[in-house]
Amino acid sequence: MSHKFPKNFLWGASISAHQTEGAYKSDGKGLTVQDTRPRDNHEIADFTVASDHYHHYKEDIQLLAELGVQSFRFSISWARIFPSGSGEVNPSGIEHYQNVIDECLRHNIQPMITLNHFDLPQALEDIGGWSNRETVNAFKNYAETVFKAYGSQVKYWLTINEPNVMLLVDKKILGKQIPLKEKYQQFHHLMIAEKYAFKLCHELVENGQIGPVPNISLVYPATSKPLDNQAALYFNSVRNWAYLDFSCFGRYNTVFKDYLNQKEVSITFAAEDKNLMENHFPDFIAMNFYTTMTVEKPTDKNNMSEGISDQQSEDIMDWGFYKGVTNPYLKKNQFNWTIDPEGLKTTLQTLYDRYHLPIIITENGLGAKDQLTEEGKIHDPYRIDYIKQHLEQCLNAIEAGVDLFGYSPWSAIDLISVHEGISKRYGFIYADRTEKDLKQLKRYKKDSFFWYQKLIQTNEIP
Ligand code: BGP
């Protein structure tokens, strides 16, 4: 089997604003839900400083140019552009991301911009967040402002990062649990906001390409029991297909509708929603993949122990539908997330056959407790191995007919893990955060940096 990727395969690397920028109050930025959510002490410094990418972006992009990536996925912090979510634009925010885009283009790196990545402006949260239709209107205004500011320089756009994980793993991602009925009204508003982004991008960005960016984990049944298979069908629909069917088909699928009916959840539509849903679609699918999930049909109402999940440490327990169980056939990383490279091929083929759209992987990576040696080295063979195994499956999927056009692993530089804070590192570039003087924060190239650099140079797996 050739290890060569297609000629124009797009090699990238990914980050998000709140997990890397720091500078959480600088230059007029408003607070976001990530700045205000309850955290235990050791985490506060992390997100206020993170990797200080806000001040180090030139150095970081220079390193990415050395790495050889052709694209760089990053998110814009909405609260830097509109400190209170809407109203007055903050010129310093516009200027900052213009500088970042300029730096990328100077190095022939294509920016791939996520409009929103878990960091809703707090002022919008204060009026009910995604439960309030006003937030959809504010998002529409924000997206229009960003497309007008940068659309002539940026081709690739991603809408809202992982709305499924945001809602299903609300405790971890947002620091609070959203009541079920409210959760699915938020689902609808998030997906309508995405439809506005598709519409505005196609109206305002010449040759603009835009895609949704869910976290997709194919769901396996724990056994061949018919009810376990039914549990997998429902969790696949609620966790994965409900989102992509809305984005790509403009409708709710039958299983998801049945789930909502059984939960006695009804969603309020606005007059314009049907037309939006059925007339604005993505150009590609961006998919974040870490691993697969496994569920069984819960049978013992007395044993309502929360299900476990093989990733995101989300507790999957939905009585009457599914319960997360560990997949005994998969290895786990240091943070108890399973590793399933073959599952990536299955997921890609399933996705491609269902939606028939080009796909790019915009997150895939291994979080670990990397060690910086005295000589400034970081030996991370475990990360090289994880990425190599997953890229081999990407090649298998391409050879099986999947139109996979890019790979942008998580993460370009070390950042703050949503679940595990400062200790869980994903980057090809080690971000040292021990210096008190932020200007002195150093970056170090890990062994995986040189491995990925060679891969990009040769366009084949070393
Ligand atoms: C995805 C998010 C990323 C990042 C990643 C790794 O769901 O899109 O922002 O958080 O998960 O997870 P963690 O940060 O919990 O290690």
From TrEMBL:
It comes from Tetragenococcus osmophilus. Belongs to the glycosyl hydrolase 1 family. SUPFAM superfamilies: (Trans)glycosidases. The active site is at E363. This is 6-phospho-beta-glucosidase. PANTHER family: ARYL-PHOSPHO-BETA-D-GLUCOSIDASE BGLC, GLYCOSYL HYDROLASE. Gene3D superfamilies: Glycosidases. It holds the Pfam family Glyco_hydro_1.
